Amino acid sequence: MEINNTTGFYIISTFNVALNDLQICFIAIEIIIGLVTVLGSSIVLALYYHERKSPKISYKYFTAMAIGDLIQGFVTPTICIYFSFGVTVSDPFCFESVVIGVTAVFVSMLLMLAMSIDRYFAIMKPMEYKSRVTPEMTYGIIFACVFGGLAGGAATALSRKEPNNPNALCFVFTEYIKVGFNATFLGAIVTPCLIIFVYSYVKIYKVILDALEVALILIIMTIK
Hints:
Membrane topology: Multi-pass membrane protein
Protein name: CSON005914 protein
Strand content: under 5%
Largest sheet: none
CATH topology: Rhopdopsin 7-helix transmembrane proteins
Domain G-protein coupled receptors family 1 profile: 40-224
Number of strands: 0
Family: Belongs to the G-protein coupled receptor 1 family.
Subcellular location: Cell membrane
């Protein structure tokens, strides 16, 4: 019996050490992600400030997205690190943190989607793009993305329910948020955004590759 108790204690101690090491690794990764995001966004904003008089519409999207990513770089890693300490759904700040995180992700995702569509039309249909797209329209789209992100956060707040298991970790959103909202969030919002994003950039990269192929052929013909 003594051997069994000693063995059990050793297993539990080893598990706790491994868990602590995993948590430290997770926190380190989140800090790195946050620092890289903040640094990258700050560089973009600094470049925009240097070129702030440029009329290019793409700069406005880059700036808006950089601001969104800058906020997300501060918010999301902080929340994830907070959750990594074993915060349960019964914690008073759990649901509020989830709402803030979802709002930041929503805003950033919608801005990325808007920029992807903008770049798609700018490259695929340049003449129509230049004649129809105006700075005012761009600002309207950016504000609509921000409003959509806030609406997503509000919808998350309104979807709150009483947790079935108060001791569940705060990562388990279904304990606090209705399953229907999660399905809608993934099926009707996130998935279409990802499809449009991937489709837009596949088309853009195809055009770029075709242009590079033509340029390479011209260079080879010139050399010959």
